[in-house]
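Hi R.,

Here's the chain you asked about this morning:
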Amino acid sequence: MTKILHFAPILALMLMALPFSACSRAPQVSTSGELEGNITISGAFALYPMMTRWAEEFQKLHPKVTFDTSAGGAGKGMADALAGAVDIGMVSRAVNAEEEAKGAYWVPVTKDAVFVTLSASNPVLQDLLKVGLSNEMFIKIFVTGEVKIWGQVIGRPEITDEIHVYTRSDACGAAETWARYLGNEKQEDLLGIAVFGDPGLLDAVIKDWLGIGYNNLNYAYDMASGQPVAGAAIAPIDYNQNGAADPDEILETRDEAQQAVATGKYPSPPARDLNLVTRGKPGGVVQAFIQWILTDGQKFVGEAGYVQLIPEQLAEALEKVQ
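And here is the predicted structure, written out as tokens:
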């Protein structure tokens, strides 16, 4: 049975919950043709840093457009969009047919991936950096619970430290994407102590030297240094199943992680597209904002720590929203 642990730092949650800007939310285009209004956005932690950057840059071009942006998980973004509680939902997973039938209108806007996170104090970290972890091993840790001891992971029975598994308590794309990589469809298939949000899960793992979890790219790596967040380490996935962590499977920096996702070396899932969802086809300033994201806004994707979609995807998305 999944246990709930509210481990997220209060300050981080407060910052995520604060609106990016506060104003009346009715979007419109003025009689002069100048864009104005307020755009409300909620949803995936994975997209939150990118969306706040896009909002900042768009507001520089259109000062009369303001934004209310908050992170609360992909499930919340979808629910809020379908309910008309926000103009745009950030959804870090595929949109299903049932959601489309309810009015979900979506386009992909960028790409990132989920990475396995450990405490930098993990007792077998150096061994893991040599052997990596296979898909089969992850299944035994996160799904079946067959592997419970760190020594079992690296073939050293003398190490008896217990594995502490962490997962997400909020409905989120990261958990669903990780579950799909492990051959499952639902977040509920994952074992572990459940923690709210990307920042909370990472904080829990950093504080627990025996912990293992998963985080989106821009939470696993520090934006300023490009290294894993202080106190955290990224566990290598043995993509080619050769029983060793090859040099291109050890992603020591954010740049290396971005490159692995961009070139397709990092498996998909856990790499995936990130989507924006509206209730029905967007219009007015919301439509203009999404069109800008898919065109001029793409120049901010790489520097913000994300991976740009291929030109064909962008063109298809732009045609869909126009």
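One quick note: The chain has 13 helices and eleven strands.

Cheers,
M.
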